[in-house]
Amino acid sequence: MSEFLPTTLEEIQQRGWEQIDFLFISGDAYVDHPSFGPAVICRVLESKGYKVAMLSQPDWKVEKNLAALGKPRLGVLVSGGNLDSMLCHYTAARKLRKKDNYTPGGIMGKRPDHATVVYSKLAKKIWPDLPVIIGGIEASLRRFAHYDYWENKLLPSILIESGADLLIYGMGEKQVVEIADYLAGGADISTIQYVRGTSYVCDDLQNVTEQYVSLPSYESILQDKKLLANAYKLQSDEQDPFYGKIVIQQFATRYVVQNQATYPLTEEEMDAIYDLPYCRTYHPSYEKLGGVSAIEEVKFSIISQRGCFGSCSFCAIHSHQGRIIQARSHESILREAKLISELPDFKGYIHDVGGPTANFRHPACSKQLKTGACKHRQCLFPDVCQNIDADHSDYISLLKKIRALPGIKKVFIRSGIRYDYLLADKSNEFLDELCRYHVSGQLKIAPEHISPSVLKCMGKPGKEVYLKFMRAFNKKNEEIGLKQFVVPYFISSHPGCTINDAVELAEFLRDTGHHPEQVQDFIPTPGSCSTAMYYSGVDPVTGKKVFVTQNPHEKAMQRALMQYKNPKNRTLVKEALQMANRLDLIGSDSKCLLRLSQGPQGSGSRVKGKVLQKDNVRKDTRNSKLRKR
Ligand code: SF4
Fold it and tell me: Is the separation of the CB atoms in 115 and 138 below 8 Å?
C-alpha cells in the first residue's frame, strides 16, 4: 500500500526529514489519484527524490496556518485545485453553489475565491525570499489578461495579481521537474526564464532574445473590449510547441512573458506519470468528515490519453493540454485496470477509459508530431480534415484487452465521443464495439446546438452530422438487438445564439423527441475562445461581430426553451416565443411548444379558448418588459 505524502509537521518528522524541499498548497482536499493535478505533480517530484509535503485547503484567514509545515528549502508550489476556484464556487447564474465536491463532506467555503492568488500572496508575505510557483488549471487559463465572468470584469494576468515568481501553464510535470532541478542546483528563481511551458513577469524585455508576438496590452483591452478577441487569436496561434513563438503582454510598466509550450510527452513519459504509486483515494483524515465526493467520479475510471484536436470554442482543454494527443501504452493502462479491479469495493465495472475526448487515442495526423498542428485550420471544423487519421483500431484493441482481464465484467465509456471523428472511420468497427460492449443503455453525446450560426461560433459540426450518427447508432442497436438511446447535451445562450436560434433548437428537440432533464447555460470560463467572444462581441477566429446575450432574463428564456414541456417554464417559454415572434408555436397544434389548456367543455370551447388565449398573448406582448427594452 502506498503512503500519502506528509500533511503535518509530525508526519514530516516521522519520515526523518529535517526540512521539506517543496510545500504544495492546494485549494482542493488531498486526493492521491492520477485524476487530481496536485497529487500528480507531488508524486512526480517525489519520484525525482524531492521531499514534498501537501498543505490542502489551509485556512487562509489565519496567516500562520500556511507556515504550519515549516519553511521549505526550495520553494512553494500553489494550485487552486482541479477546477478554477470561481467555477467551483459559483453557478452560471453567479449564485453560490451548494456543494464543493473537492472538499470533505462537500462543505463550501474551505478555499478562498481566486485561491491561487490568495495562497500565493500569503506565501510571499510569510517567506519573501522563497520562490513561489503557481500552476494548475486556474493559473494556466488566467495567464494573460482575461475576463472573469463572476466578477464581470477584465482581470490582469494571474502572475501580476498573485505576485508569484513563475507560472507553469499546461500540464506541468516536465516543467516542475526542470524548475526543481535548477533550484536544487542553486539557480535564483529570477533567472529561470527559459523553461518551456512557463511564464514570468519582467520590467523590460532586454533578456527576450528570441522572436516574440505581442498581444494588446491589458490597458488597451480595458479601453477597447474588442481587443480581447484579437489577443485570444494571437496567443492561441502560438500555442503549438513546434512553431509557436514567445508571447508577451504588457501590464502598465511590466510584461508577462510566456515561453513556448512544452513538447508532447512520449508514451514512456506518460506511462511513468501514471505508474506512480498513488493511493487512489482521499486522505484518511477526511473519512470522519464524510470523504471527498470527487473521487467517486474517477475511482474506477482510467485516463488513457491527454490533449484534444476538437478545439470546441467553449472548451479550453486544447489551450491547457494542447491539440496533440499524448497517450499511454496498453501495458500501463492494463496495469491500472488490474489495480482498480483489486480495490475492495470494485464491483466489476470500469466506468471510463478515455481523456478529454474518449476516441482520440492518437494524434490527428502524421504531421502533428513532426511540425505541429495546423495554425489556420482546425482538424474537425468546419469539416473533418482530409488528412485525419480516424482509425479506431488501437482504442478497440485496448478496450478488448481490458474487458478480458479477470474480475472485469464491463468497461463503459463515459468521456465524450466525437461522433464526426467516429463516422470518419470507414471501418465502422468502433460503432459496433461501442454499442455492443461500452454503452450502459444511454450514450451521452454533445452536439451542443443545432443552429448553423451557433455551431459555427462553437466550432462544432452541423446537425446533419449528428442526425447521421443517430441513424447509424439506432441502426446498429437494432441490428444487435439492444435498446439503447442517445442522450444529447445542448448549451443555451452561447455567443451567437439569438432567441430565434433557441426556438430552432426547441423545435428540433420536439421533432426528435428529446426532452432533456438537465440543461447547461453557457458559462464563460477563463481562457476560452467563447469567453473572448462573450466579452468582446467578436469571434476571434473570423474577426466578425457576434450576437451575445448577457441579459439574465433572456438567458433564462433560452434555457427554458430547452425544457419547454416543463410546466415551471411556461411563462418564460411564452415570453421567448413572443420575443421571437413565433406565436404560431403557441396553441393546441401538436407542433406547438406551448400548448394551451384544453378547457373542460369539449372541443368547441377548445377552439374558442385558443382564440381567446391568443388574444391574451398579443396583450402580453405589448406589456412585455422585453419589448419595452
Ligand atoms: S493536416 Fe488536418 S488533421 Fe493534420 S493538423 Fe492540420 S487540420 Fe489537423
Answer: yes
Would you say the CB of residue 385 lies under 6 angstroms from ligand 1? yes
- What's the distance, CA 447 to chain centroid? 16
Q: Could you tell me if residue 618 is inside a domain?
A: no
Ligand 1: nearest atom to the Cα of 385 = 2
The string over 383-400, giving b where at least 16 C-beta atoms fall within 10 Å of a residue's C-beta and e elsewhere, is: ebbeebebbbeebbebbe
Domain that residue 493 falls in: 441-595
Q: Are 624 and 616 in contact (CB under 8 A)?
A: no
Query: Which domain CATH number covers 425?
Result: 3.30.750.210
pLDDT at 626 over 60: no
Q: Among 461, 459, 457, 389, which Cα is nearest to 419's?
A: 461
Residue 511 lies in a domain: yes
Q: How many whole angstroms from 352 Cα to the centroid of ligand 1?
A: 27
Ligand 1 pocket member 371 (CB < 6 A): no
Looking at residue 597, its pLDDT comes to: 67
CA 135 to chain centre: 16
Exposure pattern of 354-372 as b/e (b: 16+ CB <10 Å)?
Answer: bbbbbbbbbbbbeebbeeb
Name the residue at shortest CA distance from atom 8 of ligand 1: 379
Q: Which residues pair with 411 in a beta bridge?
A: 350
Q: Are 508 and 559 in contact (CB under 8 A)?
A: no
The 3-state DSSP composition of the chain as helix, strand, coil percent (nearest 5) reads 40, 15, 45
Q: How many other CB atoms sit within 10 Å of the CB of residue 502?
A: 29
pTM above 0.85, yes or no: yes
User: What's 66's domain CATH number?
Assistant: 3.40.50.280
> For the segment 179-224, what is each residue's pLDDT rounded down to a tens digit?
999 999 999 999 999 999 999 999 999 999 999 999 999 999 999 9
Q: How do residues 374-422 score in pLDDT, each as one tens digit?
A: 998 999 999 999 999 999 999 999 999 999 999 999 999 999 999 999 9
Give residue-wise pLDDT tens across range 313-365.
999 998 899 999 999 999 999 999 999 999 999 999 999 999 999 999 999 99
Is the residue at 607 inside a domain?
A: no
The verdict on 340 and 451 lying in the same domain is: no
